[in-house]
Design a protein that fits this description.
This protein is an alpha/beta fold. The chain has four domains: 2-120, NAD(P)-binding Rossmann-like Domain (Rossmann fold, 3-Layer(aba) Sandwich), CATH 3.40.50; 127-220, Regulator of K+ conductance, C-terminal domain (Alpha-Beta Plaits), CATH 3.30.70.1450; 230-320, Rossmann fold (3-Layer(aba) Sandwich); 364-449, Alpha-Beta Plaits, CATH 3.30.70.1450. The protein has helices spanning 10-19, 33-42, 55-60, 76-89, 101-109, 111-114, 122-135, 168-174, 214-220, 238-249, 261-270, 284-289, 305-317, 333-336, 347-364, and strands at 2-6, 25-30, 46-49, 68-71, 93-97, 118-120, 141-145, 150-156, 179-186, 189-191, 204-210, 230-234, 253-258, 275-278, 297-300, 322-326, 344-345, 370-376, 381-387, 408-415, 418-420, 433-438. The strands form four sheets. Strands 3-2-1-4-5-6 form a six-stranded parallel β-sheet, with helices on both faces. A six-stranded parallel β-sheet has the order 14-13-12-15-16-17, sandwiched between helices. Strands 7-8-11-9-10 form a five-stranded antiparallel β-sheet, covered by helices on one side. The protein starts with a strand and ends in a 13-residue tail after the last strand.
Amino acid sequence: MNIVIIGLGTTGRAVLKELSGHDHTITVIDDDKDKVESLIEKYDVFGIVGNGACMDIQAEAKMKDADLAIVLTRSDELNILACLVAKRLGVKNTVARVRNTDYRKQIVAMRDYLGISMIVNPELETANEIFSLISLPSVAQIEHFAKGKASLVEVVVTPECNLIGESLISLGRKLNTKVLICAVERGDKVVIPSGNFTIEQGDKIHFTADAKTLGEFLAEVNLMRSPLKNVMIIGGSRIGFYLADQLAKKKYKVKLVEHNKAHAEVLADTLSKVTVVHGNGTRHDLLLEEGIMAMDAFVALTDIDEENIIVSMFANKHNVKKTITQIKSDDLYGMLDELGIHNNVSPKNIVASRILSYTRALANTRGSNVLTLYKLVNNQVEALEFSAKTREGFLDVPLKDLKLKDNCLIGCIIRNNEVIIPGGNSSIQLGDNVIVVTTHKNFDDLTDVFC
């Protein structure tokens, strides 16, 4: 595909990194010459220095020939204008970052006129993800396929979990609830496991399950935790605001700590059902005074990664059931497990993943067959949903008789709205949706999975 990216901040660079290895022709636009030149050197892309909302600059980028414009500058207004100009020049699809929720409502009503195909709001997307993690206390990450019918779930194997010491073969015989373990993180290694693989304490396991029976499985393996009720949020950013508002509406007791007095007063006026505290949320005496030991969940959302890590470690020390940490720098991910931080979120990576999935879906109309895509394990693993829409040689053949490429696994089959956790005798039929988990990159069709 021919793609133009306007705006090379942290999110723009994250999106470029995700898209650069997928055989796209990419042009980047930014008014910062140094950013453009450094990315031209790092990636095989074209670069233009200038205002991305300017028609002349977009014409120079050959916007009329582009399949997709992704506009991610810091300004909502500039992003909307840039999409309007791009649509006027003939681009087929546009993605715009719009943070102001008032604009979002207007854009939905004026979508055709403004020419915006997809809206992304990093802060709202991140708040939604954190809300999901708090709603499911046992889960470190969850992604949905087939319109929510099937789930791909990450959990940490804790000491009380009765998966420890079991091979995947033995689990298949013992478990009443059917799931399929697709990937395992052990230290800095990622494994697509075979039947003889044995689970150990501390493993992070990724498994597919019918969304309706997820709770039953967690209870069966002794990973079900009691619901969380009391939540402390450090940082009254947009993410903190969105999250506190969502939690309060669902009857959680929320305490939000904000360092800036004027902003704390605004939050207190706006969030009537949230206890807003003015103070430095990185001070241990304030956290103790505000009752961190009585909290079920703790969310660190300051602008500084190191502060978020330190206060999250403090929360873990005081036995808070679930700690969620915002991490912006990719360089820090390697040390998080050793520090006991298992639930972390990155706004730029969440948005990059959403845009990548949207891009692959667009490519579906141009020969690709990917319906949904998620990146797992710091982008080391892909989970893809394919549609078996053409008759191929692998259809109606038991999976045990098919040869899959190394580090590939059929995680789930959805047939007539039924979720099938596959075994060796299962087969793929015409019309099925199939979830594949793999360490390979750039799979575009179900045929790519098989040797």
